[in-house]
Design a protein that fits this description.
Oligomer: heterodimer
Strand content of chain B: over 45%
Order of helices and strands of chain A: EEEEEEEEEEE
Helix content of chain A: under 10%
Number of helices of chain B: 0
Shape of chain B: globular
Largest interface: A-B, 25 and 24 residues
Shape of chain A: globular
Largest sheet of chain A: 6 strands, mixed
Chain lengths: ~110, ~120
């Protein structure tokens, strides 16, 4: 079946690194994504990784993919208060003529001084 | 560049009243369009998707319906709202398979917060 799981909460100190983890079940995923949602707003695509890659780095963001264990993580270096938001993991599966995104429930990241 | 517009931003409606939420996309053609609902403190639930004009697929049975009267317009409707329809509704678009774009990720609108009272 199609399922994406992630922990619901993470609290970090400003300046530390944050690591948000995600597991998924469908091994046929094409791309995996990280989205950020700030209060009262829509989702913003942060970064994505193709399923045959192990790692992708984009400034303060590092995505690690362990395809064997179906585990995806997002590391935010030097976490700032502006990083406080809900982070959604999603896997993309080609289905019925479109790229179906299956989202996790979201991890609420709280950054404190 | 492509943009997605969704309105209204907030809506308070009584139980039993009709609903119409509209979403339009600019700067692209033949997009795939999606309606999601996010209940308070919960994840995203895909309600409907559309790969072309007049083509609507429903993911879950519910009190809502969707229509795509034009290529870049997606409408979410209900004839009679229920309390359980309250939530944050998000419209999104993506390139169709075979279109340009390297990740087929979704671009989301800013959302509509619906409160049914």
């Amino acid at each position: 079946g199609e399922d994406v799981e992630q922990s619901l909460f993470l609290s970090v100190r400003e300046g530390d690194s944050s690591v948000i983890n995600c597991t998924y079940t469908d091994s046929s995923s094409t791309y995996l994504y990280w989205y950020k949602q700030e209060p009262g707003a829509g989702l913003q695509l942060l970064t994505y990784i193709f399923s045959n890659m192990d790692m992708k780095q984009d400034q303060r963001l590092t995505v690690l993919l362990n395809k064997k264990d179906k585990h995806l993580s997002l590391r935010i270096a030097d976490t700032q208060t502006g990083d406080s938001a809900i982070y959604f993991c999603a896997e993309g599966i080609l289905s019925g003529g479109y790229n179906k995104l299956i989202f996790g429930a979201g991890t609420r990241l709280a950054v404190h001084p | 560049s492509q943009t997605i517009h969704q309105w209204p931003a907030t809506l308070v409606q009584p139980v039993g009243s009709p609903l119409s939420l509209e979403c339009t996309v600019e700067g692209t053609s033949n997009p795939n369009l999606y309606w999601y609902r996010q209940a308070a403190g919960r994840g995203l639930q895909l309600l409907f998707y559309s790969v072309g004009i007049g083509q609507i697929s429903s993911e879950v049975p519910q009190n809502l319906s969707a229509s795509r009267p034009q290529d870049r317009q997606f409408i979410l409707s209900s004839k009679k709202l229920l309390l359980s329809d309250s939530g944050f509704y998000l419209c999104a678009w993506s390139v169709g398979l075979g279109g340009t774009g390297d990740n087929y990720g979704y671009t989301f609108g800013s959302g509509t917060r619906l409160t049914v009272v």
